[in-house]
Amino acid sequence: MAGEPVEGTTGSLLATDPATGEEVGPAFGLVDAAQIEAATRAAEAAFDAFRSQSPAERGAFLRRIADNIDEIGAELTARAVRETGLPEARLEGERGRTVGQLRMFADVVEQGDALQARIDPALPDRLPAPRPDLRQAQVPLGPVVVFGASNFPLAFSTAGGDTASALAAGCPVVVKAHNAHPGTAELVGQAVARAVADSGLPGGVFSLLFGGGNEIGQTLAADPRVKAVAFTGSRAGGLALMRTAAARPEPVPVFAEMSSSNPVVILPGALTGDAAEDLARAYVGSLTLGAGQFCTNPGLVLVPATPDGDRFFAAAERLVSEATGQTMLTGPIASARTAGADSLAAEPDVDTVATGSAGPGPNALAPMLLATGLKSFTTRPRLQQEVFGAVGLLVRYPADGQSAEALADALAEALEALEGQLTATLHAGPGSEDDAVVVRRLLPVLERKVGRILFGGWPTGVEVTHAMVHGGPFPATSDPRGTSVGSLAVHRFLRPVAYQSVPDAFLPPALQEANPWGLNRRVDGTVAPAEDRA
Ligand code: NAP
To answer: What sequence ranges are listed for the domain Aldehyde dehydrogenase (predicted)?
Structure first.
């Protein structure tokens, strides 16, 4: 914590291997209220020193974290495999993604556009009144609490996307470790703490806390020194943190990524020839990837009730029957999947189409495929809700003998009934005029509902790039204006400050006349590269 290891005072926590149910040492001490407050006080005390770093210093700090994580090497992967049940190859890839996104944020910080520097020079001769000199730049919000996600123990946990983007913004971070992978969290936490020390920063720039139950999270969200919360997990957990943050004397933003069923619409023209079998194979691959434990798992697929659609349906049924379950992250997550799938299967008009085989161990649940009709789906919100895991719902829609316009209206009505989503995917036949009519009708509906629209492909892969959006209207997230993946994520932790008639010597470097950080600045409304303004 704040660069120093602390002894937990309220008990300890052991990891559980979800593949066997065995406990895994060592024990991690759980902090008490005074220790939580010490971490947020240290974060507050570190804020001014941290935020005054130059872009080059902040970039070097982020790169140091990435280098330190790389240095841990195989020990980190082995520990994460043991604690999560995820395969080694997946975790190796996730480690690459984690260090890759830290380095991407280093690039973003060094390049400096996130500061959005704007200068409206004074117009002393303007009539009827002169205009004052006005300058604007982004400043960090202050200490941020990050809740590590269970399903990305590296890329969305201790030094994952939320932490990397908050640090990139210049916000000290207090991480509430996810109790499903404490050893992984500790190894990464040490790597970050070493980078803090080696960069000459105060220890309060980063703390990692272990706590039992909801109390620590609630205490952190209510702490007056905390200025924002970032969370990935359940809808209930996200909502609880939103309520706490909103009820504070000084309410603060919560960026919670919660629940999404990621609808996929397969249009008739996409299923011709061999496409039905190929699409079904890709669908079941995406549905069962990582035991279905992705926020972008394709939980809903709308497929036409046509002979081609029947072939897709039969292939998906066969492939799910042949699939074997993989170990889920924790016992409670597996139990929640069982309860969610049972309750969905018990709904009227929902049929269980296929059940695969359970894998070895207590938490490797059999993948499941369910089906319903378009009318039931459109009118019963319960059928849209996410079941976290490899459980798919196929929605059959009538398509034969209908005009493209009538089909477009029926599908638009179904999509209008959806809650906010992270993604929606359209599969349309190349060159199909009828599909094109439907696509044009659905796109404006989807733009209102989701954060990322895919044309072809499957939503489970989320690239970490500048154009990526991993966000969307509630309940996909608590704030649809941002993203938790990609470089735009940094903006969640920044706010604008305007400086009016402030003498150059008192301005932050981003806004000084000499432009010492070489930023691209918007001068009088026009963006011009730094070199053109020298
Ligand atoms: P979770 O129960 O929401 O927990 C996530 C983190 O938030 C944990 O550190 C937890 O602390 C804390 N927390 C939860 N409820 C809280 C509350 N009321 N007040 C304060 N802190 C709270 O998520 P999970 O354990 O990872 O998985 C449970 C379910 O969440 C899954 O079955 C799945 O449905 C969903 N989930 C969704 C996604 C997604 O990407 N959409 C990802 C992961 C999980 P403690 O553990 O210490 O209580």
So the answer is: 13-397
Domain boundaries, the chain: 12-219+481-492, 264-455
Q: Where are the beta strands (DSSP E) in 121-187?
A: 134-140, 144-147, 173-176
Which of 234, 235, 338, 422 has most ligand 1 atoms within 8 Å of CB, for mutation? 234
Q: Give the span between the Cα atoms of 235 and 247, in whole angstroms.
A: 18
Calpha distance 214→219 (Å, rounded): 9
Residue recorded with tokens 């999404």: 260
User: Can you tell me the mean pLDDT for 353-371?
Assistant: 97
**pLDDT tens, position by position, 385-396:** 899 999 999 999
Q: Which residues have CB under 6 Å of ligand 1?
A: 147, 149-151, 176, 178-179, 213-214, 217-218, 232-234, 237, 240-241, 257-259, 295, 333, 336, 388
DSSP 505: G
pLDDT digit string, tens, across residues 255-308 = 999 999 999 999 999 999 889 999 999 999 999 999 999 999 999 999 999 999
Could you identify the atom of ligand 1 that is nearest to the CA of residue 387? 34
SS (H, E, C) 249-266: CCCCCEEEECCCCCCEEE
- Best CATH choice for the domain 264-455 from the list 3.40.50.720, 3.40.309.10, 3.40.190.10, 3.40.50.2300: 3.40.309.10
| Structure-block tokens of residue 303 | 């497929």
Q: Is this structure's pTM higher than 0.90?
A: yes
Separation of 81 CA from ligand 1 center, angstroms?
A: 20
**Is 150 in contact with 180 (CB distance < 8 Å)?**
yes
Whole-angstrom distance, CA of residue 342 vs CA of residue 262: 20
Topology of domain 12-219+481-492, CATH: Aldehyde Dehydrogenase; Chain A, domain 1 (3.40.605)
Strands (E) in 210-344, as ranges, are: 228-232, 254-257, 264-266, 300-304
Q: Write the pLDDT tens digit of every residue in 438-456.
A: 999 999 999 999 999 999 9
What span, in angstroms and rounded, lies between the C-alpha atoms of 462 and 151? Answer: 14
Confidence of residue 529 (pLDDT cuts 50, 70, 90): low
Q: How far apart are the C-alpha atoms of 522 and 233, rounded to whole Å?
A: 38
- CA 29–ligand 1 middle distance (angstroms): 20
Q: Whose CA is nearest to atom 9 of ligand 1?
A: 178
* Strands of 118-120's sheet in order across: 494-500, 134-140, 118-120, 521-523, 526-528
The answer to whether 276 and 314 have CB atoms below 8 angstroms apart is no
Catalytic positions = 257, 295
